[in-house]
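Objective 1.3, modelling of assemblies. Example input:
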Amino acid sequence: MSPALRVDRLSRVFGALRAVEQVSLEVAPGERRAIIGPNGAGKTTLFNLIAGQLPPTTGRVWLGEHDVTRAPVYLRARLGLARTFQRNDLFLGLTVYENVWLAQQCRLGLASRWLRPARSYQAVAEATEALLDRLGLLARAQTPASALSYGEQRQLEVALALASGPRLLLLDEPTAGMSPAETAQMTRLIASLPSDLTILVIEHDMDVVFTLAERVTVLHYGRVLAEGTPEQVRALPAVQEAYLGRAVQGFGAGA
Amino acid sequence: MPPELVPLALQLLNALAFSMLLFQLAAGLSLIFGLLRFVNLAHGAFYMLGGYLGLALAQASGSFWLALAGVPVGVGLAGLGLEVVLLRPLYRRPHLEQVLLTFGLAFVLGDVVRLLWGGEVRSVAPPPELAGAAFLPGLGVGYPRYRLFVIASGLVLAGLFWLLQARTRLGAIVRAGVQDPEMVAALGIDVGRLFTAVFAFGVGLAAYSGVIAAPYQSLQLGMDFEALLLALIVVVIGGLGTLRGAFFGALLVGTADTFGKAAFPDYSLLVISALMAAVLISRPAGLFGRSLG
Amino acid sequence: MTAVLAPTARRPGGARRWLVGAGWLALALLPFLGLPPFVISSATQVLIYAMVAMSLDLLLGYTGLTSLGHAGFFGAGAYAAGLCALRFSAELPLTMLAALAVALACGLLVGALTVRAQGMQFLMLTLAFSQMLFAIAFKWTWLTGGANGLAGIPRPSLLGLSLADARAYYLATLAACALTALVLRTVVRSPFGQALVGIRENEARMQALGYPTWRYKWAAFGLAAALAGLAGAFLAGFNGFVAPSDLDWTTSGLLLIMAVLGGAGTLVGPALGAAIVLLLQTWLGSLPGLGERWPMVMGLVFMAFVIAGRGGAGGVPRRPVAWGAVLGLARRLSGR
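Predicted structure (tokens):
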């Protein structure tokens, strides 16, 4: 079976800055992969290349069997890719309900219907409510997204990505800025996602990485530094050096 | 030069003259957009105002050169005042609102001109020093001196702008401001004053091109919108916000229009539209433009 | 799972529907109230511009596309209807069809070239293309009558019945206006309409959700152009002539001012804006010396509105799903 995501020698150069350089990776269907690395390692840029917000300088991207290197953003979404953004990219002027509604009506293929009122499409309404309930946002459904707390906005961000019914989910620092309780809640949510959903997570919180990830890819200065299981990776001196500036004796007893 | 090529050479000169006129017209619009990130829809109105004021000042003082120097400064100062009073309060808002404000302003300015000068067409004679034809040895024929002056003015301005932009600190600041106004502000540079200065300069430039263009084409109502349209086409084709875009866009449009008019007299505007459509299909941001995020 | 939107659910905002219904009824009764003819004429003119302003609102208020060239389609429709009436047939259905077809074609063509552009570029392109239509109207004398325009356009007839009477024409215009309003209201409340709002709010995210946004914008552009053209048909019949100024930037500016003044994003706002602007124009014309200065007055009023924060799509956006959601949630939460 072809990998859910395959990236071949992907590079993105901005003038003299090599944001992403010769990155290759393969993610199997249903795999939980964490992308980690110090700040500026090129993780979000990699997501932008995979999701299509940024065209690569060189290299190729495949979603399943489809070469999407030059495909527009919406086409990749149609092929089952969904992502969250590091800095929330919500519909701030719309309510939580309407935010998710937009994703659901697209997923159900009803977005171009123009005759009947939107609210008469019960399938969309039910799907929207169900998802909001799942994420604990149902009580806030009528609140404008701009009025939500930061944690709730992060939740909505994830809700939007899930609402498109993806096969490949890219989560960009889903727990950033969250309290421990919120982080635990988000981690539980991600862990509870269907096992046939392939997930890539950019994370700084090692607890989350260890709970969720089956495999970890470490990026450093735009290149792949290491790849393996979480235990393998954190024991590597090179990885420790990248994060801490030096290899640490006996490090590996748990984050 | 062989006599058969002379008409072609003359047409090329005409094209160059018109292109330089377009460049001087479009440069201010492109500059204001480049730094302030909105399209000054009153640009054509300032151009028209420049033309009429230029005529008035030249008639009153008897000197075209005084008008050429004085009117841009005067209109630029007016632009400065307008920017501080009307536009500055809007900078926190979506750029669209600034555009709409200039749109209303265009209506007002256009009517002010109509109020002050009425609706008749006025033709403006070039100053005596630039009247008549100069003999071009290479071509063996005469060519209107004034058109040569327009060409010279355009080339000199283009050179000056390039120098300013590429070689001076002010140019670097403006270029940086185009890329990232917030960062420039963080560096301690008064971005507000920079914006005001650039706006005033852009408006003054529009007025300058109005003074220059007056002997070339007469003054009449509706010239503000004709000019704005041409300026828009030039910057759309050349790319918004870049000097190179304004220059080469003007060259392209000016040449297409001149030769288009010669070939299809009634369809020159359609020739330009076809050109614009062709450029847009292949390069949506214009020839030298960056697509804006 | 509880049915979210049971058909028997009472829709909130019932008072509002009564108000709207009363409004239409009043408009329908207007010709029979014994009012002087100029009132009927003015009302007809208001209805025509209300139609165009509403069509512009689909772009401006709902999709977030600020078009400075909308009058191009208004005028194109007027010319098409005028030519049809002059050279072919003055039957209203035919002139309307001619106007719709031509305006739609122009709209789809211009739309294809412009909707992929962002913000400022889109603005400039719409202006540029509409000025090109103006140039065609001005130069192609053989088709459009050139600077003098098309004159002597007969009042259309409906199935043989002449609409020359001001009241009859008013009613025909009212019917078209109601149709336009109905079409727009339907579209705006539909999932497609909700998608347009999404594009206005955050186009990039819409693409990330899987929407081919340019196709939605293109469709909205075409629809708005077609409806503007339809209004143009009634303009041609009303005035009896069409001039190039009917599709130039000043008319586009006027339409924009109507939409913004009335409140973009509400459909009814721009319609009211049309009434306000036209009445203001008439009133100004009656004041000695000021009549000529209406561009300045309009410009100043517009600038004042922009500065006061009502510029652009500052109106409250219509939210088609909002009411249904309220109801569904109320039922759901009360069941816990």
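Strands of chain B lie at 133-136, 141-144.
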